[in-house]
Amino acid sequence: MPERHAQLSFDGTEYVLPVVEPTIGNPGLGIKQLRNDTGAVTFDPGFANTAGARSSITYIDGGAGVLQHRGYSIEDLAANATFLEVAYLLLFKKLPTRDELTVWEDDVRHHTLLNEEMKRFFDAFPKSAHPMAILSSATNAISTFYEEFHDPTDEDSFNESALRLIAKMPTIAAWAYKKSIGMPYCYPRNDLKYVENFIHMMFHLPVQQEEVDPVLVKALNVLLILHADHEQNCSTATVRGVGSSQANLFASVSAGIDALWGPLHGGANQRVIEMLRTIVEDPDASAKSVIKRAKDPNDPFRLMGFGHRVYKNYDPRARVLRSYADEVLATMGITDPLLDVAKELEQAALDDPYFTDRKLYPNVDFYSGLIFRALKFPTRMFTVLFAIGRVPGWMAQWKEMTEDPDTRIMRPRQVYIGEIDKPYVPIAER
Fold it and tell me: How far apart are CA 348 and CA 287, in angstroms?
């Protein structure tokens, strides 16, 4: 393919911009020299039209509803792989062989334990503390036990840090939950696999011994895979941004957790459940009335779980979960009125040109919360589960960023619109 360029006309002068070619998807107009050459910057609120990185990790075609990790479709990975397989794929750029997976699973299993001193850390939080606050703080805190692995330029340090983060994140999450309900912390078991171990630490009580339900294991495994990475979203961009200062991997992931916490990002699945619960509890509410409110520009009500910044088609993750929600609830013998309302809302929206014309289809948050709820996870843990799933993606993105020779410390520009040259007024004269 011949080399392409774009032309920009500004203040009567023509400028040539190089085109950064993709394997597939949107080409990039190179503007690295734009400010130096023209004295101008681009204005792109939310960076919706700005590529801050070249990446080989995740490809999304929002118009076609396509999501791939390292070239593998999310549908194939969710149907056939385990979460640790997908984590290995994201981190090491290939699916593991059977022997590689065995070693990887064993390494993870033997690093799940937290330093005993961390108990005092958890004890210091109030019982009412949100698990996401504890998760973020603890992720940063455990870095103090592994300062020998903080060098962002050393591959062995990255591998050791990544291994510990993947292994310990479920333990941190489970202990955060146990703290919130006033129950004793549950230690991990080396005889259990990754997802089974997490469920054990979440729900085990010392006064009883229960087997981990395989239905629950399968469902949670799929949910974690579906959240493993999603290109340059808010939390991933945050991880890359913090990492661009050469902050260590623990600190960068902690920052990503904070970004994920927001209701417009990872917290959306919790908001979906809260919305559905409000509808169920209101005798005057119906799918039709809710749809009407969502269309009213003067009503502050927002229909959570519909539409996506990237997807202008059905979110492929939501497509997987839609069928899965029915299967999980049927297998577990659960009848959930919230699921019934969710299906009514989805159908009402799909039948309404207002939503279809605007490409407002259900997204992954619409159904993930319902399945988390069916699996007996409390609502405040939903975003924590999202974070556990997203950790491999964050770390792969961080590693890719540190290895890219074009990486510079993140430093966006601005268009200043404030006052200038105001004289200082002494306090007695104000």
Answer: 7
Q: Residue 374 — pLDDT band, cuts 50, 70, 90?
A: confident
- Who's near 47: CB < 8 A, 6+ residues apart? 237, 412
Domains and CATH numbers, the chain: 72-263 (1.10.580.10), 268-374 (1.10.230.10)
The amino acid at residue 375 is L
- Mark out the alpha helices in 187-307 (DSSP H runs): 194-203, 214-226, 234-243, 249-260, 268-281, 287-295
SS3 assignment, position 215: helix
DSSP string, 82-108: -HHHHHHHHHHSSPPPHHHHHHHHHHH
- Put simply, whether the predicted model's pTM sits higher than 0.85 gets the answer yes
Please state, in angstroms and rounded to a whole number, the distance separating the CA atoms of residues 253 and 284: 44
Which of the residues are catalytic? Answer: 308, 365
Cα(13)–Cα(9) distance, integer angstroms: 6
Cα 109 from chain centroid?
Answer: 23
**What average pLDDT does this structure show over 145-166?**
95
Mean pLDDT of 391-402: 97
Per the CB < 8 A criterion, the answer to whether 168 and 112 are in contact is yes
Report the chain's mean pLDDT, rounded to a whole number.
Answer: 92
Contact 334, 343 (CB under 8 A): no
SS3 of residue 122 by DSSP: helix
CA atoms within 13 A on the CB side of 193: 15
Q: How far apart are CA 318 and CA 24, in angstroms?
A: 23
